[in-house]
Specification:
107 residues, mainly alpha, 2 domains
């Protein structure tokens, strides 16, 4: 199995950091903590939560990552990049991303 590039590792670590922040916010006494989600409308302090997530389609605008000098109109290419790293053939690029060999990196 190919090793992910630094940018993929950074993305994965950023995602994990985000989840840790969400979980921390949901389980502390901070006044701005998460008090409910779509699947769990009312969360008691310290209670379990269910987090849903998805991978945005390639071509999705990423305006917060804009760099006028090098990339003034950034778009997501995560799926294509991961397919390239893991050598996923075009015929194996199904709509169900859970079937891709790289999906376990995120799951």
């Amino acid at each position: 199995m190919p090793r992910p590039t630094n940018s993929c590792l950074i993305l994965t670590l950023t995602f994990v950091s985000f989840l840790c922040n969400v979980i921390h916010a949901a389980n502390t006494s901070d006044s701005d903590r998460i008090t409910g989600t779509v699947l769990t409308p009312s969360i008691p302090l310290g209670g379990p939560i269910t987090i849903t997530w998805s991978i945005v389609p390639d071509g999705t605008d990423l305006p917060s990552f804009s760099n006028a000098a090098s990339d003034p109109d950034p778009k997501s290419d995560l799926i294509a990049r991961m397919d390239s790293i893991y050598g996923v053939a075009v015929v194996d690029q199904t709509a169900d991303l859970t079937n891709r060999p790289w999906f376990a990196v995120f799951a």
